[in-house]
Amino acid sequence: MGEPGRNAYNTAQGLEVELLSATLAASGLRVTFQVTDGANAALDMDGVFTQGAVTARFVAGWLDQDNAGKALWYTAYTTRNQTSPITMVSTDQPATDQGGTLTLISWQDGIYEYAFGATVPLDHLDRTHTVGVQATRALDGLQYVSNDTLSFVPNGTPVTVERKLIETNTCITCHGELREHGGSRRDVALCILCHQPQALDPDTGNTVNMSTMIHKIHSGKHLPSVEAGTPYQIIGFNQAVHDYSTVAFPQDITRCETCHTGPQADAWKGKATRAVCTSCHDTTVFVSPAPMGMRLHSAGAFPDDALCFNCHGPNSAVASVVTKHLSPLRSPTAPNIVLDITDVQGAAASAAPSVLFTVTVDGAPRDLTTSALTRVAFTVAGPTVDYQNYFQVIAQGTGAVGTLTHLGAGAHRYDFPGTSTLPANADRTYAVGVEGYLQAGSTAPRYSANNDVFFVAITGATAVPRRTVVTETRCNACHQDLAAHGGSRNDPRYCVLCHIPENTGDERVSRVEGQTVVALSVSFKMMIHKIHRGEDLQQPFILGGFPAPNDANPAGTPVNFGETRFPNDLRRCAACHEGTSFNIPLPEGVLPSREETYTCLEDGAVDPDTLCDLRTVDSTRVIQPVAASCTSCHDSVATQVHVETQTTTTGEACIVCHAAGSAFGLDVVHRLTP
Description:
The chain is of the alpha+beta class. Helices cover 13% and strands 28% of the residues.
């Protein structure tokens, strides 16, 4: 079997499809492309002469432009009609081409030509046209994917108008990899060929135009319509309902520049249109009177977009898009506070240490004795092998103790009070961290300083910092400005000083009389894993928030992280972890975590309120270090039983099967598919 001069040959894994050229003439739309494996060897798409058949699907459209020559939206040539079984509405949606012809051009190079089945009119030969391809190759039980796009102008002139408002590389900063529509669409340049104004979900009536859809998805739970009780949903393939009403963008939603990057990164600044603005502000209307449940635009009714630029144009002094999206914390006038610890003196067992530190505000040294911050506090924890204890002292602000001295040029000395000493058994290395902020009032913006952490040797010749597992930089890849506890805790090096293995956060757990409650571990690894696992957890993860339980509200402020939707693949541990810090065995000295069960001891019949003032620990569950990491994500009962059978008082047997290189090593069970 075969062709003259052609024989079967071995190829590597992988797939790469590159669009080489395209033409549009009376004979139709045609595109030539090359298909190769991961080692650049030509592939036979039929899978006869090389392993793994390749399937390629094509889309195509033309790009409109405004009078100034700026890109508008694509209009697809390749469409299909879909009728909703719910509304019976029919719509022509952009889709992959049907009825085309595939021709082999060169088997040695893997070059093919595809002639589109869609009839393409010759009405826009002077406009940018773009062809897109999504290709898949099934091999050894895996599916390899490749996307590519090619822009051209049919009349032969150079391409000068393109739509490049966002880039795939920006999306994958949080998402790791785009895998839409079953995993075969991974390139934003391909997505926008179909997700344009033609695209309508006939089931819900929602547009799936890229700007509206992506804005709404990322706004999610904070959309005014969702907050008012209407879920934001799109019904997709096989009538699958996709509900985005619980999506919470992990940073300030007004930070448009997070997603808008690339050649046209600033285009959003001049895109004040009713459609774009109401994609987030989706209960605002421009007709009067406003329909029930909607609100009229603050400047009144507008018949079209022409007047938008009067107030929201890029150079408007009234309310430009940029100005309206500047939250107080991101304002150019927001103070920049920097706290740096330069030394820790007198750190010894049972001793009250002194901290030397500097303060600048907007680059200028500040004297805290004459120009105070609202709060400055120091947290001490140790030893760094794995933090066993911690305490905090307030140097400035409500509850301040100790002595604060200005040494000149923004340098300060803070002497801990005699009541705040290191433990009597303190040894090895301890950490001292600082937090601080400026806030004009309880409802005013809180401008927080950075957290700095300094390591000091209690015993031994030199300080040994805690191992690095995650970094602020990695957190901020998604969160941009990590801001916990009101914003004053913003560096994981500082977070771990309090979120130690033995911390259960019991002070914030419900204290309702007559209840038995479980105080879950808030050790950093367990808490962060569970928060990011979110909706994929099998057991609810509810922590006590602020304010803590009190007489008026004995239940406190429970926070349910069961709706958290991690945008990345949960197996991609390296998205958050430094190096191979997620692998086992863990370093020697890492401590178990724990959770506690509390029972109220008060007699509700004689107590005047429902707040439990007296409770006892009924039981303590000790969770060994590896189990604490693994079961924080894999929290099923079956997994817990498995862990308990592999754990004794002398340790864990996890490394036998799950160490890297083992049969069920993390490098195997967390392996990502191509």
